[in-house]
Amino acid sequence: MFKKVLIAEDMQDINKGVHTTLCELGIQEIHEVQYCDDALLKIKKAQADGAPFELVITDLSFKSDWREQNIQSGEDLISVLKKEFPNLKIIVYSIEVRIQKVRSMISNYNINGYVCKTRRGLLELTKAIAAIYKNKQYLSPEVSQALSTKNTLEIDDYDILLLTQLSKGLSQEEISQYMKENQKTPSSLSSIEKRLNKLRIDFKANNAIHLVATVKDLGLI
Amino acid sequence: MFKKVLIAEDMQDINKGVHTTLCELGIQEIHEVQYCDDALLKIKKAQADGAPFELVITDLSFKSDWREQNIQSGEDLISVLKKEFPNLKIIVYSIEVRIQKVRSMISNYNINGYVCKTRRGLLELTKAIAAIYKNKQYLSPEVSQALSTKNTLEIDDYDILLLTQLSKGLSQEEISQYMKENQKTPSSLSSIEKRLNKLRIDFKANNAIHLVATVKDLGLI
DNA sequence: TATATCCTTACGGCATTCCGTAATACAAAA
DNA sequence: TTTTGTATTACGGAATGCCGTAAGGATATA
């Protein structure tokens, strides 16, 4: 079994829950951090001391508070870690169930496991740890389709940006302006209209209000 | 200190984290459930056996899964418990920070504590337990204003209904129809317009889309 | 080079929303 | 009963959104 594991998770209770589980698995050295910057620091330190971490279990979202942080999100943390410590195993432990998100985490960072925080989250986590210890990738059932099928609607970053601006109360005209100012293309009012129309159809929404409500429910924005 | 405590929380990891904390506080008998129905059952059983629970720590939202549940939410559970077991102490432990929600929980059910799940959630929880053991109410800082100020906008059930229909993609005309069919008043198109305009101003929203996005963020719908 | 295809942009008509003003209905107070 | 205040409804003009059609531009294929 792994000997040295780091938990990066801002919520104290979950942190503790995971800790207890790792203890039960017989992992000897378990460290916890509640901030991404601390995670990177600890991992660098351990490496320098010749006793590197073997596994990191990290959340994706970290609430910001009074402490200034260089690394704002779990995704940023993973990006840095996979670059500086290619051999370090990483499990994402998150409430996020967006297939698209999981797929991008896998393809961009080649994470070793993705476990959804659910009722049985800890059980899944132990399964993931066991699998990864045998050098196998593990995805909890909710997202395992991320590897196989291509069921997802093709929603790209531009769409997300568009929907975000729309939800912030900008008119289509204002969004057009915004896109021009930010060098994003397409930026014409007509294109904005067309794109939003496509999204409305994709999401079976009656109008823009319905569209925004829907994508918010899906957690896309 | 309390001797017998029940934790009702669907997420395994949080459940475990809270459990560990309670152990450290020296509470002797700690029970956990992941479903509301189980909570009620356990509490009834304990009462019948002459060894009732003294304190319940419960979440508000329970994800539904394959198991059929009579009690769907923490709020429903609390409603039942405070009716059947008036002496039972209840702490809500939730990620929900809506002042309005907290206030309604206090006034409707007279809950003994409300702790927000945050970085320092468990610390707050131990404070809450200590306070409640001394028969004092405890609210974590994020929501403590719920007791004092009256900052809240007056949003009634009609507004919620209105916003809900709007978010479902109905046009103002259709909402007017809907209100007439359901004997809700006011129901004229003009009144719908006026009310939505008021809500837009209250929530400082640029347009209807922005309004719906905002109230969804606030968890009002 | 020519042709096809896709993407972006432009325009126009119609529907809905936005917003101010005013009339009507209802209920409490004089 | 009359008065007064509030809530509901009605209406009209301006702005925005919705939707189809079509022109212009870039890239790929023959």
Could you describe the 3D structure shown?
- The structure is a homodimer of 221-residue chains.
- The first copy, chain A, has a six-stranded parallel beta sheet, with helices on both faces.
- In chain A, 37% of the residues are buried.
- Chain A has ten helices and six strands, in the order E-H-E-H-E-H-E-H-E-H-E-H-H-H-H-H.
- Chain A is 50% helix and 12% strand.
- By secondary structure, the first copy, chain A, is α/β, with parallel strands linked by helices.
- The first copy, chain A, has two domains: 4-144, Response regulator (Rossmann fold); 157-217, Arc Repressor Mutant, subunit A (Orthogonal Bundle), CATH 1.10.10.
- The model of chain A has no long low-confidence stretch (mean pLDDT 88).
- In chain A, helix 2 (36-48) runs parallel beside helix 3.
- The interface between A and B is large, with 39 and 39 residues.
- The structure holds a DNA duplex (30 and 30 nucleotides).
